Every structure is written in structure tokens, then in C-alpha cells.
Amino acid sequence: MPDLSKTIDKYDTAESHLEGAAKYWSSGRADYLKDWNSFRLVFQKTFIPERHKTDLWKLMTHRVQQPKENISFYSHKKVALCCELNPTTNEIREQIIIGLISRDLSNFVLSKVHMDVDELFRDILDYERVGDSRRGRFNERKEIGRGGQQERSGVTKGNQQEQNVKSTSSSSSKNTHLVRCHYCNEPGHPVQNFSKSRRPRGSCYGCDSIEHLRRDCPNSQSTSRTVPASDRSTLIVDLAHLWLI
């Protein structure tokens, strides 16, 4: 004799959670709702209309794995949709593979032989595990390579900056030799950097004295020759005599 205590517990639990229209529905059918099986069948007939296989097939075929969707979540959802159509194991396997987003994974599981859906799940999970391990390893190599490249780039940048500093210093040195002071006429510095005391305003250009001008400077190398008045007269007479001749 079957154990009716379990079905009675399910029936009592379900009936205690009825609300709204479902509660009135249960009261109107109290005469033939005696256990869980009768309750389940009548409830499904009233509130869960039967779906046509065409709609079920369309819903199942449109269910594919979404980008970044968990592979286990997709697979089990796909199986649940397939089971409503009572397909064979090979048909379920085929529909799961068709909906996979990864072409490599699809080719991998197609090359395998699966006795049931659980074997298909194991192959899918093994493929994902190996793929995750490979991606993690290659990402580590990329990070190491990127770090070495940045270090080499830093050294190269430092060398370039050092060369720029040397080039700037060399250019500055060359420019320094080309500069000539307008005050002392000496090369090597501009007039703004003239370190000696400057000549007082209005002083002599030869000795910086303010008591006389350059033309009266005793240090001047050029001396003016003074012609006596008698010599000037003789010169004039001689010139007149030459004209008369």
C-alpha cells in the first residue's frame, strides 16, 4: 500500500499557500480535491494551459547561449525545454551543441561519443576548465612581457632625456661662444652679464675719466699735428705762386 502521508503533506502545504482566485477555486472543488495527485492534475488543467508542440519547439530552438552566460545554466535550461517535447538523447545533445556560442567548443563535443546528457556536460566542463587555465597562463605571460617592455621603454626614455640634456648643453656652450658683449666687445657673455663696473655717463671712452672727453684724453694713441701760423701763411703764398706760374 502506498504511503499517503507524503501526498497528504504536499496537498495540505499547497492548499495553505493558495491566495486570491486560486483559493476560491479550491473551495469550489473541495468535493473531489482529496489528495495531492488530484489537486495537481486539476490545478494544472485550470491554471496552466497546455502549450502546443509548435510553440515549444520554437521556444526551445530560440534558446541559445548568450555572451558571457554560464555554460551550465544554459545547458540545463536547454535540457528542460527539450524534455517538454520528449526527444531522444541524441536530439537533446544535438540541440545543446547547436546553441553553444563557441564554435571551437561545438566542434570539440561533436567529435565525442556520449551515452547520455551527463557525459556531454562533463566534456563541456572539461573544455571550459582547460580553456580557463590556458587563458590565465597566457595572461600572466602578457603581463610579464608588458612589464619588461615598460622597463625597457623607461630606460630608453631616460637615455633619450640624457642625450637631449647633453645636446642642449652643447648648444648652449656653442651659443655662449658666439655671444659678444656690446659694452666690452669681449666674447662669451651678453651685455646683461657684464661683471665689471660700467663707465660713468658722460665720461671718456679711453680712460673712463669724467674730467675730459675722448678727444682730450692723454692716453689717446692718435695725436693731432698743429701747424704754426707762419707755416700756414707760407703755404698759402706758395700755392698762389704756383697758380700764377
UniProtKB/TrEMBL annotation:
Q: Which GO terms describe its molecular function?
A: nucleic acid binding; zinc ion binding
SMART domains in UniProt: ZnF_C2HC
Q: Where is the composition biased (Polar residues)?
A: 150-166
Q: What ranges does the record give for the region Disordered, renumbered to this chain?
A: 138-174
Q: Where is the CCHC-type domain?
A: 180-196, 203-219
Q: Which Gene3D superfamilies match?
A: Zinc finger, CCHC-type (4.10.60.10)
Question: What is the protein's given name?
Answer: CCHC-type domain-containing protein
Native organism:
Phaedon cochleariae (Mustard beetle)
